[in-house]
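Hi R.,

Here's the chain you asked about this morning:
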Amino acid sequence: MTWTTTLDKAGNIKLPEDLLEKKAMKAGQKVRIVEQPDGSLRLKIGRDVMELAGMLDGNGIHLTLEQINEVIAKQGLKK
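And here is the predicted structure, written out as tokens:
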């Protein structure tokens, strides 16, 4: 899908409402702009790590950093 918007005099762009709704974006959310090798720009929309704090329910699972890295390494080998 393609959207078109206009750069204003202050250098700002307004994202279309339907795009904001589709991506569940909210005012104040960070958006990274990444230049691609071909010169095009890509918007990266994601959560800041700090927004994830408190999302786990504390089900009693506690892992060390080493254990977490081991799980990540094992999952990487499965791909």
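One quick note: Strands lie at 31-35, 41-45.

Cheers,
M.
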